[in-house]
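Allow me, if you will, to draw on your knowledge of protein folds for a short while. The matter concerns a single protein, recorded as an amino acid sequence and a row of backbone structure tokens. Could you please explain, in whatever detail you think fit, how the structure tokens follow from the sequence? I remain grateful for any guidance, and I place the record below:

…
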Amino acid sequence: MAGPSESPTGPAARRRSALHRLYDWCMKWIQTPAGIWTLFLIAVAESSFFPIPPDVFLIALCVAAPHLSFRFAAICAVGSVIGGMIGYGIGLGFMDTIGQRIMEWYSLHDKYAVVQDLYQRYDAWAVGAAGFTPLPYKLFTITAGAFKVDFFTFVLMSLLSRSARFFLVAALIYKFGARVQYFINRYFNILTIVFFILLIGGFVAVRLLL
């Protein structure tokens, strides 16, 4: 039931309805012979403007063909990095027009200053965090271009973080099969945050010990 300030036919409700229709449409394409290309295009689009993360579609393909899980993860990672490069280009050359419209659509303006501070503190490590964790990756790709983060480092961190994220999903399904799908869907955010903390802890340990 909608809250007192939200009508069942208000803008937020209509947006959710549109997202559900978009999700259903994408799932239909995933289940066709063009499913791999659908996954690739969704991964490209999600990194710059598309609202639905590719993980759910990656899971669907991996469950259908577990022996191809790592192939699907690679396709998803490559598509996501290419999409990140597109987002970087939007921020670099079109922040005042296209970039602002995307920020408005996802109500991300209040996070813009936060991301700017993260880039000033951690540079491309911020991209790595966003690429692997549930943080909105498109916010970081677009702002990376707007803040002129080093492009080579941006691409490298995107490749590492997005590959880690998607190959983690693929490995779990390859190992445990369809029965792990519910667990991933329910606890994916927690899994990615824990894994990222362990990853950073590993880097810190290396720096302290070597």
Residues 33-182 form one domain. The radius of gyration is 18 Å. The first helix runs from residue 11 to 30. The chain has one domain: 33-182.
